[in-house]
Each structure stands twice: as structure tokens, then as C-alpha cells.
Amino acid sequence: MQVKAMLLRAPDASGTRVAAPERTLIFAPKGRDAIVASKILKDAGLDSNVCNSFVGFVREIGGGAGAALLTEEAIREHDSRELAAWVAGQPAWSDFPFVVLTKHGGGLERNPTAAQFVQSLGNVTFLERPFHPTTLVSVIEACLRGRRRQYEFRRLNEELELRVAERTGELAAANRQLVSQIAERERVEATLTQMQRLEAVGQLTSGVAHDFNNLLTVVLGNIEFLERGLDAAGIDGRMKERLSYMRQAAERGARLTHQMLAFSRRQRLEPKSLDLNEVVLSMRDLMQSTIGGGVEIATRLEPQLASAMADPTQLELAIINLAINARDAMDVGGQLVVGTQNVRLGSPRRPEEPAAGEYVAVFVADSGSGMSAAVRAKVFEPFFTTKEIGKGSGLGLSQILGFAKQSGGGVHIETAECRGTTVFIYLPRAHESRDAQILNVDSALTRTGAGQTVLLVDDDNAVREVARAMLVQLGYRVLEAGSGGAALELLNREQHVDLVVVDFAMPGMNGAEVAREMKKTKPSLPVLFVTGFAELKQAASIDERDIIAKPFSSKRLAQKVQRALQSADRT
Fold first, then answer.
1. What is the per-residue pLDDT for 266?
2. pLDDT digits over 327-385, tens only?
3. CA–CA separation, 78 and 59 (whole Å)
4. Which CATH number describes the domain made up of 272-436?
5. pTM higher than 0.70 for the full model?
6. For 23-44, how does the pLDDT look when each residue is reduced to its tens digit (9 = 90+)?
7. Which residues neighbour 290 within 8 Å (Cβ) at sequence distance 6 or greater?
8. pLDDT of 300 over the 50 cut
9. How far apart (Å, rounded) are the C-alpha atoms in residues 516 and 495?
10. Which CATH number fits domain 453-570: 3.10.310.10, 1.20.1250.20, 3.30.930.10, 3.40.50.2300?
11. Are 501 and 528 in contact (CB under 8 A)?
């Protein structure tokens, strides 16, 4: 057991780099071979160590040596299995050299047992006795050189393995970084794809909404004329009731179109500096009556809340929409929390979230069913809804997103299935006083026209006819043009025009271009723009007071026309 434990300490057991041992172990228990060999090696300047027992010989080999010299009879007379086990257990880089002294004529060809030595010891050199001193020295030096090369190979191999490990670590780190960059790129590409998709849908939606606004202007305008005609004729009853139903349906379509424009971010907003705490508190009764008494409404308001820039009407609609969605997400009863907070946001992780910066947030939280990941991914798509048919248009959250983005903010949703949903609307902070804001148009109906001349420009004949009839009933003289070019020619012929009412979106020259050309010859001429939607970049320089949105009533048209004429009189 002692020898076996000793054999386990092979040359690589410590794993440390050591220089190759230079000593030669000698085991020749009979005769003078050990003494002679030791003296020859000493005279040659080679270190040697004579072992007195086989156990000691094996122990010294395990402790480290450059070569071993032993006699043939020493191997035969001892149990060499321990030595053979040590040889077999050498590491891959080690091939310990043995020199075996044989009797005269004891080579492999005449000594079959020598083949056994080769099999058990491996790296064996046979040296016949009597041997010349030079031969012994030459053989031992050759063995020591070979042993040194083995240790050098071991050192180089360890350095190579170390470099491979270091390089592998570097490659692993680079690979992790690359995987992270690929994941980030895929996230950005997915966000870009979603934004492009929403933008494409928005462009389609705005075009459809524009056409619908033209149709609704004609429908609502003619319904108004019919109602006035029935009133003038003193007709009441079923016919008037049916007209009322038609008006309600058309107005519902107008609201739906308004939502579509909000989603596509092409509606005209009137942002003001708002205290969101006041907005929430003023809406509490309205929200309670809208969602019913079965839902408890609680508020969580930031005491030192900054002012926000937003359109108050659109903000109230957004909060009402969120409250209705929250009510529908809760089976029976439940609690709805409406709150505000100042926030500082980092870089957005989703396309609906705003850019990094400081915002004022209003949020609506419910204790309802929450959203699955699949629903969460599609929740801002227009016309997507989880409600029953007829109970939702699917434009609520799309409208809220469009309003928030157009206002310079964004939306964030926190949700989990069976744990409720919280929707945050982030709005930009206000940096101007309320005194500097533009006043709303007076809601009171002002006096009608007194024969002033209005040039009406619209490429849609039906819309132009409705607007003309309204203006005539209001007491104005109306000139009509179906295009921008025709309007400019008519203006050059007509000496006196008090006001131009022009459609903003027309083929060829749009309303803004027509107004610029007119201002070159008549800079003081007031212009009122009519639009179903307005491209924000083109209409950015136009005052809100100079725009009337389709569909419009004769009352609204009267207000806008009178204000435009009054502004011209003051200048």
C-alpha cells in the first residue's frame, strides 16, 4: 500500500511547472555495476543516485529523475508490477527513459524476456555488459536530453492551453456581446417595423377620415336644411324624428372619424397649460356617471404636480376611454384608480413610449383581468378589440396613443393576467403661463352677415354647395371656385372680396398655397381654412382661429366667419 500511494504522485500530480530533473537513478543490487556506473557518470559530470532497494528505487522515480539505470536480473528478481503501473500512469507528455544492463548476447534477438521489459517499461535502451564508459555516458546523456525535451514540451503545452483558455474566454465574451447586440438590433428592427406599420395604417386612416368628413359635411348640412324647412313649414312628428335619428347617426360617424384622425395623429389640437389634478377632480362625477355606481373610483394625485401641455378636450376623452375600458375589464364592481405623477423617463423600450425626458403623467389603474402577452402586443392596433361586437370600435387606445404622441408624449401599459392593468399617458411639461395662451372661440352665436362677399373655394362640389347655402342663409354674398387656380383668376376679376373660405386639402394647389398667392396681391385679405384633416407640418403656421374642421354646422361656420371678418376690421 505504501508503494501504491507513492505511485500516485506521478510527475504531473502537482500541476506546477518544474525543471527537468538531471539525476540518474541506479539500481544494481549485485556485483559492482552500481559502483562502476556511478563513478563513470560522476567523472562525466553527471549526477546519479544509487538505490539500495527496489521500493526505494520506485519511490525515487516518483519523486523525480531524468533517467534510470538498472540491471536485467534486478527486474527479474523483484515484483515489477508497481513500476509498470507507474509507467502506465504517466501523463501524456511523459515517457520516462530506462537503461537496462544485460548480459553479453542478451539482446532482443537472443533474449525473449527483453521484449517483456519493453512492454512493461516502454522507453527502454538495452546496454550489454561489459560496456565502454563512453558508451554509458553517451546513452545516459541521450536519455537526459530526451527527458528535458519532454519537460519543455510540457511547459509549451501548458502555455498553449492557457492561451487557448484565455482566447476561449475572450471569444465567449465577444460572443455574448454579439448576442446582446443582435437581440438589441432585433428589438430595434421590431420597433421600427411596428412604427412603420402604424404610420402606414395612420396614413390610410387619415385619407379615409378625410373622405368621410366630406361626406358627413354634406349629410349633416342637408339634414340641417331639412330640419329648418320642416320648422318653417310647421311640420312636426314622425318625419322630424327620423331626421333626428339621421343626425345622431351622422354625428356618431363624425365622432368615429375624429377618433380615426386622433389615431393617425392628423387632428388639429389646441394644447394649453393644464393642472392635471384639477382635470381629474373636475371629471370625477362625469366618470362615475359614465361607468356606473358599481365601480369605486379613487384618486391618487401628486401634490407638487407640474403643469402639462395638452388639449383639454382630447385629454378628457382619453381619460373617459380608459375609465370605460377599466370598467369593462372588471367583472362586477372593483376599484378604479385615477392618478397623476411627475416622471423622468429613460430611453423608450416600445414604440408607443415617449423619448427620454421629464413628463407629467395621468394614469388609470383597474383590478380587472389584465392582458395576455398576445393581447398586449396588438392593443394599439386600430379596430382591435376584445369586447363583444357592438360594444367597442377598437379605436379607444389607438386614439389615446395618437393624441399622446401628437402632444409630444406617449403611452405606457403595465399589465398581468388576473392582476389588472395600469395605463399611463405621458404629456410634456408646460413652460409658459396660462395668460399667454390663445383664448377659445366664443361659443355664443354672433351676428350674421351684412352683405359681405365671401369667396368659397373647394374641389368637392357637394361640400361647396352645402357651405354656399349656409353662407347665403347667414346673409353673405358668395363667389364659388372649384380649384386654387380658378380662385386666383376670380380674385383678379373681382374687385371686392371680404373673406376667402378655402379647403385646405385640394389637388394641385392646396389651401395654404392658394392663400400665399392671394396675399401677394391682397395682403390684408382674411382667409378661413376648411379641413377634414390637416398635415401638421403644412398647417403649423396657421392660427387655430383661422381653421374650421369638417363636418361643421351653420352655427360654427357663422362664428368662424364673423371672427375672421372682425379680425380683418381691426387690422
1. 52
2. 887 777 778 899 999 999 999 888 888 999 999 999 999 888 888 888 887 777 766 66
3. 15
4. 3.30.565.10
5. no
6. 999 999 988 889 999 999 999 9
7. 320, 323, 324
8. yes
9. 18
10. 3.40.50.2300
11. yes
